[in-house]
Design a protein that fits this description.
Length: 429
């Protein structure tokens, strides 16, 4: 039995995200929120857990995410509940429940849960941000959604960003293609990787997604869905491709792109980064899911969306620039007269819209300057005995090389002095 004193740790595959690292997450979410809300997408918050049926029906009873990776439990009333492994099925469930006006454009961010083998860039609790548009099958919305995902990643300077697209057809042409693929795979069964040799029939399309050399070689001559599209799917595909090219997006057509979730129809896409390890190089992806809402119990409703893996985005950014995305407060107040002046000054600065921090416990000047340095504030505001007596403060730059840049200003001028410095820093960077 565990001793009460045994150290408790975050469960395998999960982690704590502490400050200052968490500030990078805030940055990711706030930039995403700005981009998508400017495009008319509203924040949707759904529960972290749902009736298991939402995912079993939405993602697919036979899908690995549902059969192997989902966290399921029975609640105290005996209901079958699952932690969400992804958000799109929940979005469709919310759509069916609330019947909003269409097109319904929403965005989300938050944790997802999948019982996977943890490794770099793969966790059991991981975070996604995404956007979904329900209620229109206009190919222009495919272009809007894909270009939003692209623009966001491009704005983060993700190194070697690549966009691949494909069409998976629909309920008319997919079965015809599937049959052709099945007959191809049957005649190449013995050449597949050890896993797919046994189980390719469960989900033949996933074999195309397998990165193992055996499967890659065996499927080289496999038929492609793009050659089997029915006329309406072909027309849609052409319009999406033209739309993306028309916006100048660097897009490549990848007939092997099938993606992991069963609900996709027509357009699918994925974005990857050269900054990530090749097995986990996807920063995100998505596609159309025109049958999903009906599967969940609603009326036939078209839909398209994407989700981006936040851990992957941060890994990709790290690989290119260790440069700090995290900024310290505008000012750090060093109080040598007991501490209550720092309380007053930080409050005053914060109320005026600047960020400000301070030290506690009446530490020495040196200790407070060390704390200021750690905070990454560009400027310190010092209040000592002399300053207090003359109703002034000393303002000093923390940036190396300009230690001479120190002035004593009347307290009433502090705000304008800090604003002047903040402006100069911004213009200089
Ligand atoms: P999916 O929902 O499977 O289409 O995944 C969308 C994106 O979420 C992927 O491209 C990854 O960036 C990210 N992702 C999926 N599973 C995990 C995981 N277990 N750990 C970290 N990120 C993940």
């Amino acid at each position: 039995m565990d001793s009460d004193k045994a150290q408790l740790r975050a469960p395998t595959g999960t982690r704590d995200i502490l400050p200052p690292e968490s500030a990078r997450w805030e940055m990711l979410v706030s930039r995403f929120a700005r981009l998508v809300s400017h495009a008319g997408y509203g924040l949707l918050m759904t529960p972290l857990f749902e009736d298991t049926a939402v995912f079993a029906r939405g993602v697919g009873q036979q899908n690995d995410v549902v059969t192997k990776e989902m966290y399921n439990f029975h609640d105290k009333a005996g209901r079958s509940i699952s932690l969400r492994p992804e958000v799109t099925a929940s979005v469709a469930r919310a759509f069916v429940q609330h019947r909003p006006q269409t097109p319904w454009k929403v965005w989300y961010w938050g944790p997802q849960f999948r019982y996977e083998r943890p490794q770099a860039g793969r966790y059991r609790q991981f975070y996604q941000m995404g956007a979904e548009a329900l209620g229109t099958s206009d190919p222009e919305i495919d272009v809007e959604v894909i270009s939003l995902a692209w623009d966001y990643c491009a704005s983060l300077d993700i190194p070697g960003l690549a966009l691949r697209v494909n069409s998976l057809g629909d309920a008319t042409c997919r079965p015809v293609y599937r049959e052709a693929l099945v007959s191809y795979l049957r005649s190449h069964e013995h050449e597949l990787c050890s896993e797919h040799k046994e189980r390719w029939q469960a989900n033949p399309l996933r074999v195309l997604d397998c990165k193992r050399p055996d499967c890659l070689a065996a499927t080289e001559g496999a038929p492609h869905q793009l050659d089997y599209l029915c006329d309406p799917c072909q027309e849609h595909w052409k319009a999406v491709l033209e739309g993306l090219l028309g916006l100048g997006l660097e897009v490549s057509v990848d007939p092997r792109l099938v993606r992991g979730l069963d609900y996709y129809t027509r357009t699918t896409f994925e974005m990857s980064s050269l900054g990530l390890h090749s097995a986990q190089d996807a920063v995100g992806g998505g596609g159309r899911y025109d049958g999903l809402v009906e599967t969940i119990g609603g009326p036939p409703t078209a839909g398209i969306g994407f989700s981006l893996g936040m851990e992957r985005l941060l890994l990709a950014i790290d690989s290119s620039s260790p440069e700090e995305l995290v900024h310290g407060p505008d000012a750090f107040v060093v109080d040598l007269v007991g501490g209550s002046e720092a309380t007053r000054l930080t409050r005053e600065l914060r109320r005026a819209g600047l960020s400000a921090d301070r030290a506690f416990d009446a530490r020495s000047l040196r200790a407070q300057m060390r704390a200021a340095d750690r905070s990454r504030a560009p400027t310190v505001v010092i209040v000592g005995g002399e300053e207090l007596a003359s109703d002034t403060v000393t303002v000093r730059s923390m940036r190396s090389g300009d230690s001479q840049d120190q002035v004593r200003v009347p307290r009433t001028d502090l705000l304008s002095e800090l604003r002047r410095r903040a402006k100069a820093t911004k213009e200089g960077s």
